[in-house]
Design brief:
The protein has 331 residues and is an alpha/beta fold. It contains 14 helices and eleven strands. The strands form three sheets. A six-stranded mixed sheet has the order 2-1-3-10-4-11, sandwiched between helices.
Length: 331
């Protein structure tokens, strides 16, 4: 009898494993550069595309982080599967994991839009005045796009060898807290790297002005955020990865065509008090383009390689993207 029970259990075990519901755990930061994720979750797009590919059920969960360093740690520890962040945060992880089982690459770009260096000090009007910034809050020092933009400003002013000249002024702080600190006019925060919609919030106040924007520093429109994951997730279940890829493509179209609905989702998920009109306007400015096509990402990667922040210099944007994106005209 015991032998029969054992045989029955062993026979049933593959059915149990097969019946296990796959999960996709999504991580993102606090700014609105990840509206596709809000759409994906609210409209269950991963589940939709998974079902089309023969996966009847998928569990999707989400987590929020202040900066790329913590998200990257979560991805490496297999605590999350899909990350939304800056190209620069992704480059750090890509270079670190290249050639290993934990290798990380980008899935798609998410949006091209400018962020800005702002100040409440009338004496700080151009990047030549950045030495007057007492403290500059960024989501993560050295590796976030805002932090790298400060380094690019220093390199532009003083040469590549002086790229870290302003690093001692940068501190880790969420975009929301940085905005509160700048608007208060109290303390050492007299400059910020402002991200939408916090940039638009700041500029409603007459004493806040733009010193420079990211397009100026990076030579033109460039990808602000992208999605990325591990080789392990990509290869473990190719159909589930394809469902994620297709869901992000569909969500990008939804954000482009219906920014108000995406804004509502973001407000709900962020527990924000901002109005739908305000968030929708911030997400649809003349320089904002919701697109999965990577733009000028190589400039950031080359800069980080040149100054030694990453130890590997890519030859092409395709080096740090998964093959599913290769048909796009990226850069």
């Amino acid at each position: 009898m015991k032998r029969l029970l054992l045989l029955a259990t062993l026979a049933f075990a593959p059915m149990l494993a097969h019946a296990e519901v796959p999960e996709v755990r999504i991580a993102r930061q606090y700014s609105m550069g990840y509206l596709q994720f809000n759409v994906v979750e609210h409209e269950k797009l991963i589940q939709k595309h998974a079902a089309r590919l023969g996966i009847p059920e998928v569990k999707v969960s989400s987590f929020r982080f202040n900066g790329p360093a913590a998200m990257n740690d979560a991805l490496l520890s297999d605590t999350v599967d899909i990350v939304g962040g800056s190209p620069h945060g992704m480059f750090t992880l890509w270079a670190k994991t290249l050639g290993t089982k934990q290798e990380v690459r980008a899935i798609t770009a998410l949006v091209t839009l400018p962020f800005a260096i702002t100040s409440n000090d009338p004496a700080i009007t151009t990047i030549a005045d950045l030495g007057k910034c007492k403290k500059i809050p960024v989501p993560s020092v050295r590796v976030s796009s805002p932090a790298v933009s400060v380094q690019m400003a220093a390199a532009k002013l003083y040469g590549m060898k002086e790229y870290a000249k302003f690093d001692t002024a940068t501190i880790t702080m969420s975009p929301a807290d940085a905005t509160v600190a700048l608007l208060s006019g109290v303390g050492e925060i007299n400059c910020t790297i402002a991200l939408p919609p916090f940039l638009q919030q700041q500029l409603e106040h007459p004493n806040i002005h733009v010193v420079a924007n990211s397009f100026d520093l990076m030579g033109g429109p460039n990808t602000y955020t992208l999605s990325y994951t591990s080789l392990k997730f990509h290869d473990r279940n190719p159909k589930l990865y394809q469902a994620v890829y297709d869901a992000l493509q569909e969500a990008t179209g939804r954000v482009s065509n219906d920014i108000r609905t995406a804004a509502k989702y973001w407000i709900e998920d962020s527990e924000s008090r901002l109005s739908v009109d305000f968030v929708a306007a911030a997400g649809s400015g003349k320089d904002v383009k919701w697109t999965t096509i990577p733009e000028r990402t190589m400039q950031g990667a080359e800069f980080m390689a040149e100054v030694g922040t990453i130890k590997v210099k890519p030859k092409s944007w395709k080096d740090y993207f998964f093959p599913e994106a290769y048909a796009m005209p990226g850069s």
